[in-house]
Amino acid sequence: MVRWLVCTRWGPLWLWKALLVCVAFAFAGQLLGVIFNKTVPSAGRSILSAPDQGPSLGSCRPHTHIMFLKTHKTASSTVLNMLYRFGEERGLRFALPLGYQLGYPLPFNAHRVKGYRGPGASDFHIMGNHMRFNRAEVEKVMPSDAFYFSIVRDPVALAESSFAYYKEVAPAFRKAKSLGEFADNPWKFYDARLRNNHYARNLLWFDFGMDHNANYSIPLARHGEKVIKQVFKLILVSEYFDQSMILLRHALCWPLDAVVSFSLNARQQKSDRSSSSSWVAKAAPSQAKMLPNLSLTDEQREKLREWNALDWALYQAFNRTFWEKIQRFGLARMDQEVALLRTRREDLARLCLRDGGKPVEAQRIRDKTIRPFQSGVVKILGYELQPRLDNATRTACLRMIRPEIQYKDVLDAKQFPRSAAPAQPAPPDSKARAGLGERAGLGEGGGVRDWDGSHLKQNQTVKLR
């Protein structure tokens, strides 16, 4: 009788068992759904905490005393981000500027470093903000065992980027309708007496602290190369960035993740004719629809190399020594490590970044604190983080995409907690802070100001020694 009641009134026993299994699966699925909606999968979380995946570096010890000469328009912002990340993760001290550059375009002076207490009293590990190199003053700040390195770029590619970025800043560029027109007859537009025209000629030579207006000669070029080699242990090449990172990693004895990066401070390559409502259109209505004309013929490219003959000589010399280092390193070995580096970058891009890791316009970045600084009509691109990252992953990913200006503010606030103001992003129109444009006093006349608003004097050149 009881068996009949169970089977007819409440259903057979096997049906109850099946129902309980279904309920258990449903509850588990709902629980897992809540977990995955809140955080990234555990496999993704472990990718940043995994041990170094790079080939063994042997028994060497990581360098922590580092001086990087941040040359202009050479992918140096991406390199600086690596230094910032490495130092922040390990609690190292940075030789930070009082403002945002170390007195540029004046030759570097040790007193431009925040917290500098005099020769022999410094306890800084890393120096890397923009400066015009001055060895004697740098040596007052950095330890004697510091590793010096820098990066160079083909002068034609550098001129293209410089023309796009400094079109409104350098009088020589501002007067030319296009880069091609400037290349055809540079002397028609160039006046060495005008401020900021150093951006228009031999910019690498200038950043290394030498006279960029000197007449080219083979002995002068060789002497400049010799002076640089006496100080800098490694010169990277922008066109071979990934190979450069492998050489740098081995020179510094750093883990692979320390040199994995996303390209920072990249400019938009095409004009956006539909963005009439953007801040660019409001600030410069007459130029907002079109980016600077950078097209060049082969003949014009050669003319630019002749115009930047000192830079071209440096580039050829250090490109040659760069590949000599790779030959000694081993071509097959280099190919293997570059492949590993690129795979790692792709993994981190999928983990960290929206839109498949593609850079986006600043106004599309929801988090205003990581929007890159904008200069002129050229749009500087940035990145957006994936949503719902766990805290540890988000912190690591944020370090990789944080723009240079904001990152400097963060480090400044940590290093000088009592004196530093809260870190805030630079507003798009803050050219006074960035030291760019006539609106900040960088025109052909009047006083020039650094990024911190302090007055700078007439450009000077450090004599070769």
From TrEMBL:
Protein name: Uncharacterized protein
Family of the protein in this entry: Belongs to the galactose-3-O-sulfotransferase family.
Native organism taxonomy: Eukaryota, Metazoa, Chordata, Craniata, Vertebrata
Biased composition annotated in UniProt, kind: Polar residues: 456-465
Topology relative to the membrane: Single-pass type II membrane protein
UniProt-annotated stretches for the region Disordered: 418-465
UniProt source species: Periophthalmus magnuspinnatus
Subcellular location: Golgi apparatus membrane
GO MF annotation: an example: galactosylceramide sulfotransferase activity
